[in-house]
Amino acid sequence: MSTSTLEPTLAHSTMKQTPIEIKNVTVIGAGTMGNGICHVFANHGYNVSMMDVSQDAMNRAMSTIAKNMDRQIAKQMMTEAEKEAALGRIATYTEMSEALKDADLVVEAATENIDLKMKIFESIDAHAPEKCILATNTSSISITRISSHTRRMGKVIGMHFMNPVPVMKLVEIINGYATDKETTNAVIELSKAIGKVPCVVNDYPGFISNRILLPMINEAILSLQEGVAGVEEIDTIMKLGMAHPMGPLQLADFIGLDTCYSIMNVLHMGFGNQKYAPATLLANMVQAGFLGVKSGEGFYKHVPGNKELIVSDRFATKQWNG
Ligand SMILES: NC(=O)c1ccc[n+]([C@@H]2O[C@H](COP(=O)([O-])OP(=O)(O)OC[C@H]3O[C@@H](n4cnc5c(N)ncnc54)[C@H](O)[C@@H]3O)[C@@H](O)[C@H]2O)c1
Questions:
Q1: 113 close to ligand 1 (CB < 6 Angstrom)
Q2: DSSP 292
Q3: Residue 10 pLDDT
Q4: Residue 262 contacts residue 112 (beta carbons within 8 Å)
Q5: What is the pLDDT of residue 161?
Q6: How far apart are CA 258 and CA 275, in angstroms?
Q7: Coil, helix or strand at residue 273
Q8: 32 lines ligand 1 (CB under 6 A)
Q9: Is the pLDDT of residue 318 over 70?
Q10: Which atom of ligand 1 sits closest to the CA of residue 139?
Q11: What domains can be seen in the chain, in order of their start residue?
Q12: Residue 26 — φ and ψ, nearest 5°?
């Protein structure tokens, strides 16, 4: 059911024409990534249909979008009137068939679970207009495998946004084995039209971003596990020595240790190479529920409202300092 006004298509000044015309974007899943994706499309003049399983989830998403737009207003990146217009372009739905009625593009950003995504894509394929492009924001699941659950493999593509979506410039575009050129070109042009920088890669485990990032994080965890250095030392070396804005262990806490573990497992299984085996310490922390920011503790302690970096007591002892 729609809870906010869907305005007539008002072309925003930054909206560009693409060979396949995209005006109406449906985003499935209104969590961390879904609300950011809706925010960016609405900001750039697209009609956005946001769909999640409950109205509560969408109310939370709309309030997050409004708060993030307020930050942009404070930084003079948008005006109050532009915020109201952008929010007015987002309609919310709990029924997939309604949310997809006029979609030119779907971006699926639901929970990272392979069985769930297969079911969602079967349903999207059944309800979306024939010409509609089906994109997924998956971090690690094969685009080709997802596309095999549709009758339009050529129109299925990876559109991997980075977190936080309104801030991060990159969209990693992943061509499945059967993705057609027209679809890739449309998604490249669309990414540019929403102010992002597209990079096209092929469909191999972890694509490029996570194939390179996650083994680095895993290596940092292995170094900690072996007592080569402590949490602070590992992160300081990578920040000050390699000019990374944040150390790999802090980043792992932000991504979520369960997500890191699951992506390492995808790489390990996908390549069948021992070099991708997740660190035992990572597995133990996940099994014990120490997941980083989302659970309040990982390599660091995370107290809401406190941005200070406090190493978890478990790693603050001498034994972790070699
Ligand atoms: N969080 C990140 O940093 C990040 C970065 C890049 C890509 N991703 C990918 O983006 C996707 C979403 O991740 P997230 O972090 O936003 O997760 P999240 O848990 O914050 O949100 C997922 C949302 O999907 C909804 N959902 C579950 N089943 C659904 C269904 N059947 N229909 C509609 N909605 C449904 C949930 O209710 C929830 O609101 C995943 O594929 C993830 O791998 C995440």
A1: no
A2: B
A3: 38
A4: yes
A5: 98
A6: 19
A7: coil
A8: yes
A9: no
A10: 43
A11: 24-202 (3.40.50.720), 210-321 (1.10.1040.10)
A12: -110, 130
The C-alpha atoms of residue 50 and residue 198 are separated, in whole angstroms, by: 23
Q: Is the CB of 134 under 6 A from ligand 1?
A: no
Q: Atom 11 (ligand 1): residue with closest C-alpha?
A: 109
User: What contacts 318, CB < 8 A, 6 or more positions away?
Assistant: none
Positions annotated as catalytic residues are 139, 160, 172, 210
% of the chain with per-residue pLDDT over 90: 89
Residue with CA at minimum distance from ligand 1 atom 2: 163
Query: From CA 217, how far away is CA 221, in angstroms rounded?
Result: 6
Residues 6+ apart with CB under 8 A from 322: 227, 228, 229, 230
- Collapsed DSSP state (helix, strand, coil) of residue 89: coil
pLDDT at position 142: 96
Name the residue among 52, 53, 297 with its Cα closest to residue 65.
52
- The reported pLDDT for the residue numbered 8 is 33
- C-beta of residue 36 within 8 angstroms of C-beta of residue 161: yes
CB 29 near ligand 1, within 6 Å:
yes
CA separation, residue 96 to residues 49, 64, 172, 183, 242 (Å): 10, 22, 26, 22, 45
Q: Give residues with Cβ within 8 angstroms of 51, minimum separation 6.
A: 26, 27, 28, 29, 30, 92, 93, 94, 95, 96, 99, 100
Q: What per-residue confidence (pLDDT) applies to 221? A: 98
Closest by CA position to 40, among listed 251, 201, 190, 207: 190
Scan for tokens 């949310």, then name that residue: 99
Tell whether the torsion through CA atoms of 200, 205, 208 and 209 is positive or negative: positive
The whole-model pTM stands at 0.89
User: Distance from the CA of 31 to the center of ligand 1, in angstroms?
Assistant: 5
> Of the residues 26, 27, 28, 33, which should be mutated to test ligand 1's pocket, given the most ligand atoms within 8 Å of the CB?
33
Tokens for 256?
Answer: 């979520």
Count Cα neighbours of 120 within 13 Å in the Cβ-side half-sphere. 27
